[in-house]
Amino acid sequence: MKYLLILTFLLQTALFSQELKIKADEFKGDQNKGISIFTGHVRIKKVNDELNASKVTVYTDKKNKPTKFVAVGDTSFKIQTEQGAHYRGVAQKVIYLPLKKEYHFFGNVHLKQLDDKKEIFGDEVILQAIDGKAYAKGVEKEPVIMIFDIKDEKEKK
């Protein structure tokens, strides 16, 4: 528990003083290698962003600043971009690169933009939280599917 509190403090400080809270059933860390592993009902919350998974591995640099988060197993997430767009979704694996503010989603990805009612289904999706850009790839036999909710002019009246 003591190590979890220390790690949480270091991660909070490293992420521009925004509170980063990690909850999990179990924690293992190796400060020399810069690796922290959280397992069992992992929930990471930072301001308006949230990441849930069965296991999350956090990689840090020599100054204990997080450089990469890798989440696997029952991953779900909520993200707000710097432009204020809200996303929610699921994937088999999520990689977050905090220095680039970039999310990589892999395996049965379903990403939904809540504000504009857009949805992306694919095998690999990249979301850049700084500029709100998204890129998607389908699997070999399955295309990327994008769904838009287009209102008819008559419906607006």
Largest sheet: 10 strands, antiparallel
Structural class: mainly beta
The topology string of helices and strands comes to: HEEEEEEEEEEH
Q: Based on the structure given, which CATH architecture is correct?
A: Sandwich
CATH class: Mainly Beta
Low-confidence stretches: none
If helices are DSSP runs of H or I spanning 4 or more residues, what is the number of helices? 2
Count of the domains: 1
Helix fraction? 10-25%
**What is the fold named in CATH at topology level?**
lipopolysaccharide transport protein A fold
Count of β-strands: 10
Radius of gyration: 17 Å
Mean pLDDT: 83
Beta-strand content estimate: over 45%
* CA-CA gap between termini: 58 Å
| Overall geometry | globular
Keywords: Periplasm, Signal, Transport
GO molecular function: glycolipid transfer activity; lipopolysaccharide binding
Protein name: Lipopolysaccharide transport periplasmic protein LptA
Domain Organic solvent tolerance-like N-terminal: 21-129
Description:
By secondary structure, the protein is mainly β. It has one domain (2-151): Lipopolysaccharide (LPS) transport protein A like domain (lipopolysaccharide transport protein A fold, Sandwich), CATH 2.60.450.10. The chain is 11% helix and 59% strand. It has 2 helices and 10 strands, in the order αββββββββββα. Strands 1, 2, 3, 4, 5, 6, 7, 8, 9 and 10 form a 10-stranded antiparallel β-sheet that branches. Pfam families: LptD_N (PF03968).
